[in-house]
Amino acid sequence: MKRFAALLAASILAGCATAPPIVTTQRVEVPVPVPCHVQPIKPPMWALDTLPANASLYERVRAMAAEITQRQAYETRLEAAAKSCE
Fold first, then answer.
1. DSSP string across 21-66
2. What's the pLDDT tens digit per position in 44-61?
3. Whether 67 contacts 50, CB under 8 Å
4. Contact 48, 60 (CB under 8 A)
């Protein structure tokens, strides 16, 4: 019994003799969703919408060609706004 008590005391003291674990701080980067605040982009006044009802064929074709450029510029602005939220 004395042997068991001595062994128990030795094991308890051995447990206290070990070095405490080293605590280290690690930095973990986690993506956090952030709301996107973009000013609303208003569509321009389209060239075909401003034509009078009695416009000639030449004026309509010219307005259609101008509207293609307007739509391309509008789409570019919309894509830039969408890309800024990524």
1. PPP---------------PPPPPP--TGGGS-TT--HHHHHHHHHH
2. 999 999 899 899 999 999
3. no
4. yes
Q: Residue 49 carries which DSSP code?
A: G
Token readout for 52 is 């009078």
Please count the other Cβ atoms lying within 10 Å of the Cβ belonging to residue 47. 19
Take residue 54 and report the two structure tokens written for it: 């009695």
Q: Is the pTM of this model over 0.70?
A: no
Structure tokens given for 73: 């510029």
Provide the residue type at 58 as one letter: Y
For the record, the structure tokens of 80 come out as 């830039």
Long-range contact list for 38-43, CB < 8 A, 24+ apart? Answer: 38/81, 38/84, 38/85, 39/81, 41/74, 41/77, 41/78, 41/81, 43/74
Contacts of 71 (CB under 8 A, 6+ apart): 46
| Residues 6+ positions from 43 with CB-CB distance below 8 Å | 74
Phi and psi at residue 6, in whole multiples of 5°?
-65, -40
